Amino acid sequence: MAAAVFPAWLALQPGARTLRAFSTAVSPATRAPTPSPRTTERTSKYERPLRRKALPPRTEKMAVDQDWPSVYPVAAPFKPSAVPLPVRMGYPVKSGVPMAKEGNLELLKIPNFLHLTPVAIKKHCEALKEFCTEWPAALDNDEKCEKHFPVEIETADYVSAGPSVRNPKARVVTLRVKLSSLNLDDHAKKKLIKLVGERYCKTTDVLTIRTDRCPLKRQNYDYAVYLLTVLYHESWKTEEWEKNKTEADMEEYVWENSSSEKNILETLLQIKAAEKNLEVNKEELLGTKEVEDYRKSVVSLKNEGDNESTLSQYKESVKRLLNLT
Amino acid sequence: MLKGMTRLISRVHKLDAGHFLHTGSQAPQNLAAHLDNQVPVESPRAVSRTSESDPAKHGEQHEGQHYNIPLQDLKAVFPHGLPPRFVMQVKTFNEACLMVRKPALELLHYLKNTNFAHPAVRYVLYGEKGTGKTLSLCHIIHFCAKQDWLILHIPDAHLWVKNCRNLLQSTYNKQRLDQPLEASIWLKNFKTANERFLSQIKVQEKYVWNKRESTEKGSPLGEVVEQGITRVRNATDAVGIVLKELKRQSSSGIFHLLVAVDGVNALWGRTTLKREDKSPIAPEELALIYNLRKMVKNDWHGGAIVLTLSQTGSVFKPRKAFLPQELLGKEGFDTLDPFIPILVSNYNPKEFESCIQYYLENNWLQHEKAHTEDGKKELLFLSNTNPGQLERLCAYL
Predict the structure, then answer these.
(1) Residue B279 within a domain
(2) Which of B183, B226, B323, B350 has the highest CB neighbour number within 10 Å of its CB?
(3) In angstroms, what separates the C-alpha of B385 from chain A's closest C-alpha?
(4) Which CATH number belongs to the domain containing residue B165 in this structure?
(5) Cβ distance B107 to B306 under 8 Å?
(6) Chain A within 8 Å of B124 (Cβ-Cβ)?
(7) Are residues B268 and B376 in the same domain?
């Protein structure tokens, strides 16, 4: 472009007649097309068009069933002329649309996975298969896997081309185990959950231990297994100070010895006293069906929180207990 | 001559107004017939009003209809209990009409069948903001007043835990704090509401106020109330004494006691009050709250306890909270357990229709589209059948 401009500027000079041919020859299809070249057939090497005409993009020649992994065999930046998708990206101007893909910097900035289409991955898998061993035939569903192999270890290996093969992220080890597969009684399970804190997920009953404090993967794996062992054994032990567990420490609501029980007992005793019915004792009062219903409703209310069903259940049980119609 | 003319003109005007009402309400009557085929083709007044003004006789058939409370009754029964917007509405329409709704009917049914020998049952009205808990409580209070119960009404317990000035250290118990202003206001209103009982009930102990004043055993309760009103320093203690005496004596059968507290979740939450050294005050350190907590326990008999949970006016509670456990907290729930929770919900279509009718009859809705089907649908959508929201919307029309 600069070469083309230069002679044109020279041509503008009044005395540069010799360069006139030059300048006209320099105006090929890229410039405003002159109807006929001023000089005919006086093309030299320089006059050959310095810029090729822009070819139509490769996408127009692509067949629908082409081999895509050969277009993008490795991770490569987004090439608008090589990707046949009408993709748009960018914030639109007022009453406009996002920018098209040609010359779109946004599409270049983001990572693309065009080299990892399912077809490409299948090919990778096929290539890797010869290095793999066979999956054991007996483990054909998830339950069997869990039954025989309850502990899952997750590690990641990183391969990259660079000055060093080592990657500090490779030392992370994640150990996952379901508590239902461990031999824990009620007290042990509660103690274990309290010990691990956030690492336990209530909905899936999975304990996840993620270690990366040692420099090597092997060491981290040993540490994770050690942690699991220690947790298991410690949760089975009962310490002296565990006797001082208060109501605030309880994980779920326990009705026995709670204030709710006391209240209902007092109320019932007063009712009985009002009816001059003195031959009752506590166990009998607490054993009736109404009290049982009430107990269930209070426990569900406290454990599950307020919602329509628990509240209406509670209301019904209280009504029956207090003999209200 | 002139007088006759003016009278004629005024009569013509009245006719015109009547006409307007008549034509205006014809359309909704047809619509009402559309909406609910069982509505008999009477005047639309039947949909929104009932002439039964004794709450004791309210039943299922009156559901959705407004009943009238005579204005003198209003002053006697509710010296402080009505929500401010309702008071404004009463002043505007020159009549006090409450809608009869299901939660109140349910409560009335329970109250009519109370066994006064059994410990007092606690009923808790809960619901979202603006659904009508306070007015349902007022309906109940009116019923009990008509039945000649003694009404112990705390209009808004939240007022006792926030923005109180002049906290004094209690003379009775050094750890607690007095609230003379709130206590004296409440005593005045209590006196207005329950004049006739104050001379009947006698105190059963001698109370010494200070070196010179004391109330002897056997003197009427009115004296204690007077003492509290005149000597503001002792107002909180007077309130405490009133509560204690009433609790003790309600079992004797001379009177039935209704304890009605609006915003009872204030008793167990936090307060916004601080001492001089900026340390926060817990609710139980306030003598009024402490005594009130004793009142809502069910260790007495001879009456009933009706409570309302309210997020409006509560401190440190999120706006969307309305369920009992959320507002009461663990402590409150454990203290009130066992109670009967009663949900107060938004209007159902019949009640909504009735409310709109009531506003139309009082010429409150001036917008020309207010009585059309579309207008009503719009109001229904905008307010989501929430009574409080509907009332606010109609104020603009």
Answers:
(1) yes
(2) B183
(3) 20
(4) 3.40.50
(5) yes
(6) no
(7) no
Cβ atoms < 10 Å from Cβ of A251: 11
**Residue B384: CB partners within 8 Å, gap ≥ 6?**
B346
Of B118, B326, B334, the CB nearest to A306: B326
| Whether residues B289 and B317 fall in one domain | yes
Instruction: Say whether both B257 and B360 belong to one domain.
Output: no
Q: What is the DSSP letter of A280?
A: -
- Rounded to an integer, the average pLDDT of B125-148 is 89
Q: Is the peptide bond before B338 cis (omega within 30 degrees of 0)?
A: yes
**B326 in contact with A, Cβ within 8 Å:** yes
Which residues from chain B sit within 8 angstroms of residue A263, using beta carbons? Answer: 298, 334, 337-338
Is some CB atom of chain B closer than 8 A to the CB atom of A95?
no
Is residue B321 domain-shared with residue B363, that is, in the same domain?
A: no
Cα-flanking dihedrals φ and ψ of residue B305, to 5°?
-125, 120
Q: Which tokens go with B202?
A: 């006698």
Instruction: Give yes or no for residue B381 having a pLDDT over 50.
Output: yes
Structural domain total, chain B: 2
Instruction: Indicate yes or no: CB of B323 within 8 angstroms of CB of A264.
Output: no
| Other beta carbons within 10 Å of A13 | 9
Residues B191 and B275 grouped into a single domain:
yes
List the single range of A34-38, A278-282, A285-289, B97-101 with lowest mean pLDDT: A34-38
% of chain A surpassing 90 pLDDT: 44
Specify which residues A154 forms β-bridges with: A174
Q: Write the residue in B323, B335, B339 that is nearest to A318 by C-beta.
A: B339
B349-361 vs B2-35: helix axis angle to the nearest 10?
A: 170
The confidence band for A49, taking pLDDT boundaries of 50, 70 and 90, is low
The amino acid present at A12, given as its one-letter code, is L
Do B284 and B149 share a structural domain? yes
* Residue B207 main-chain phi, psi, to 5 deg: -120, 125
Contact A271, A288 (CB under 8 A): no
Cβ atoms B103, B343 nearer than 8 A: yes
Contact call for B325 and A324, based on CB within 8 A: no
Picking from A264, A269, A270, A313 by the largest number of B CB atoms within 10 A of its own CB, the best residue to mutate is A270
Of A258, A267, A311, the CB nearest to B119: A267
Per-residue pLDDT, B21:
41
Residues 103-122 of B with CB under 8 A from A: 109-110, 113, 115, 117-119, 121
Q: For chains A and B, what is the number of CB pairs under 8 angstroms? A: 65
> CB distance A306–B324 less than 8 Å?
yes
> Contact A270/B341, CB-based, under 8 Å?
no
What's the mean pLDDT in A209-233?
95
> Residue B65: inside a domain, yes or no?
no
**Smallest CA–CA distance from A297 into chain B, residue:** B338
Residue A218, token pair as written in the block: 């092997």
Collapsed DSSP state (helix, strand, coil) of residue B304: strand
Domain boundary among B343, B363, B386: B343
Asked if B294 and B387 sit in the same domain, the reply is no
Q: Do B118 and A259 touch (CB under 8 A)?
A: no
In order of A251, A299, A307, the CA distances from A303 in angstroms are 9, 6, 11
Question: Is residue B20 situated within a structural domain?
Answer: no
Mean pLDDT of B276-300: 87
Residue A315's closest chain B neighbor by CA? B340
Residues B330 and B365 in one domain: no
* Domain with B215 in it: 102-343
B147 within some domain: yes
How distant, in Å, are the alpha carbons of A161, A162, A263 from that of A166?
11, 9, 67
Across B20-24, average pLDDT: 39
State whether B323 and A311 contact (CB < 8 Å). Answer: yes
